[in-house]
Amino acid sequence: MCLRVKGKEIPCFRYSSDHKDGTFRVALMEDIIVPPNSEFIAQGRILDSVPYWEDALLEPNGEFMGKKEVLVARVLVNLLTGKIPVKIMNVSDKEVELYKHSCVGSLEEIITFPPKIKNYMAISDISLEESTTPKTLPENLENLYQDSCKGLSSEEDAQFRDLLFKYQGCFSVNSQDMGLTNLAEHKIDTGKNKPIKQAPRRIPIAKMQDVDREIKDMMDKGVIEESDSPWSSPIVLVKKKDTCNSIRFCIDFRKLNEITVKDSHPIPRIDSILDALSSSKFYSTIDLKSGYWQVKVAPEAKPKTAFSIPGGGHWHFNVMPFGLCNAGATFQRLMERVLSRLSWKTCMVYLDDIIVLAPDFSQHLKNLEEVFSRLRDANLKINPKKCKILQREVAYLGHTISEKGVSTDPAKIEAVQNWPVPKNVRDVRSFLGICSYYRTFVYQFSVIAKPLHKLTEKTQKFVWDSDCQEAFDKLKIALTSTPILSYPRKEGQYLLDTYASNTGMGSVLSQIQDGEEKVICYYSKLFNAAERRYCVTRRELLAIVQSIKHFHHYLYRQTFKVRTDHGSLQWLLRFKNPEGQIARWLETLSSYQFIIEHRPGRLHGNADALSRRPCAEIDCGYCSKEEVRYQPEKPAHSCLAVETRAQTSSKTTPEKDKDSEHFNIDITKCQLDDPDLSYVIKWVQDGTQPEWKDISSLSETCKFYWVRFESLKYIDNILYCQTQEKIDGKYCNVIPKSLVGKVLALLHNSTTGGHLGIKKLSQK
């Protein structure tokens, strides 16, 4: 028996409880109660991946109907609407309660028989509007179409619209609509190691509701399911950068990754990909919808992905989660299989980044259709919000790809290219710091930089003239052009130099090429108000995390070296029981393979200068405050002799004022003559903190300032030390032993001294 609907003949079969290949199970989306002797229409959802069908038939589950004593009707479903109505009838005299996730039936593809060919057409069947009205695209593709059709002719526009309409099933409709491929499974080889069980971490009460919501969402999508696995990893809640303060649910797989046999599947060479892209005129970048979640986890590996929630159960993943060390290799292998014989001709694929290329529009449209067809056959869904189609210029793997060829992404060298014009000597020194680090690559560096070096002389007044501007511009051009910026190579270790100052962070990604250290790109970032309040160690750690994320395309699945002048960061990879922000940062770093090397400050000028890049904002309150903070504090006009209370009303004599005026000059000389402070001044001038073994035999004064090395400044030939308040603390003169008596007399016995006690005097 067949059912004819709109010219389509649909065969009707007897229902069966068996789940056959080619069918997709349908379950209830929520708990429902069906009153006696009544009919109820509920909403269903597909338990398996969403098929690429336009129409399907819902076949009832006989076992479900027999158990619940209800009837489920056959329903013709249009899958493009995203809704599956389930018609349920209760013929009994009692109400029936049906539970969420109950399997009510399965979807089967409609077998469409071609209509009989007619050798005539009735006049009433002819419609002029039908031939001229463009096909209506679904809402999820409208923005993609509008962004992509700019600059196309009317004919090209129509062809592109037809292509999107034909392959609309390739694009995800909403967050619930994800693909699931059968072409690859993620395996986790842990050898003969015993299961690792980590205790679940405590979750703040305020976050429990967010955790429950994430668990429910992943369970509804089929991403996770309840588990009785002996393995267990803790969860990490990562705050997303949005206005809703939402969280990202992550798992700390570091312990599992340590015992996992690493996958050696090769990653494509970035330089080879870039060379192949430069001869095209049209480019399209394609992004998959939650790409990792479209790959199944092998049945034997599912228990190893298990995680626990205090009071919230034990779960494991059905699909490939983020944070596993071999996830990238599995995904690269999948994409190469899906796009086999298309790579290097029709498209390029680097992990989850796909770029389609062609020399002209018609060929590009054919290439897009080939890629869409392959993704559809693999049951992989595309995220339309992150796609760029039919573009003349796109950003790909940290470079700008266009008809003219491959060039550096402007955002990549913006830190140096848009360096603000120096406004004082300190800004000039910061800029010269990075220039001097790469002076061997700049022809006639000393000649070009001479006007800038002249500004840093002690007796030179700061005047920014045309010669300084010319030198400044030439050095910026030299820094942002070859041979300074080189293309990455497959051979050669990557080096990441990071540094954080009070106002920002900087980093330089380099690579050893032909025995020399060649710069790949620069990166710098000013800290926001919250980040400026971090301690020194946390700011340095933030610099490492931000830099590695920024250079992800180069560093992922590479063994590289991070060089920092902050020695305490070497504990980073051994940190136990991380919480909050540290846990989030370690989760980010878990997918990378690197070592941390301490580097003395005198050798770290490249990243240090980027971190001290002057702020471009004219009215920046913090920078204004910094200018005031670094000014030496003038001593109060006071007398040096001890006065009685009766004599304090007398005026200060001119001779005493004269002594006070020369006090700053005396302290400079006394600091240099001091046997202890002379060591400290040399450390600060060199910009490096010596090793403990080199100072262990020195005096207690030297050790005192060695511990406080980060708080020392040498300004206008005077050594200053910051007070205990890390951010808002003042910089005070470091008093040599020879002047301690005079300073105490000034502060205690002067006209404004007030003969204060020890506590108040120390605060003063």
TrEMBL record:
Name the SUPFAM superfamilies on file: DNA/RNA polymerases
* CDD domains documented for this protein: RNase_HI_RT_Ty3, RT_LTR
Can you give the residue ranges of the Reverse transcriptase domain? 219-401
Looking up InterPro entries in the UniProt record yields:
DNA/RNA_pol_sf, Retrovirus_Pol_polyprotein, Rev_trsase/Diguanyl_cyclase, RT_dom, RT_RNaseH_2
Annotated organism of origin? Pinctada imbricata (Atlantic pearl-oyster)
What's the protein name? Reverse transcriptase domain-containing protein
UniProt keyword terms in alphabetical order: Endonuclease, Hydrolase, Multifunctional enzyme, Nuclease, Nucleotidyltransferase, Protease, RNA-directed DNA polymerase, Transferase
Question: What Gene Ontology molecular function terms does this protein carry?
Answer: endonuclease activity; peptidase activity; RNA-directed DNA polymerase activity
Q: Which GO terms describe its biological process?
A: proteolysis
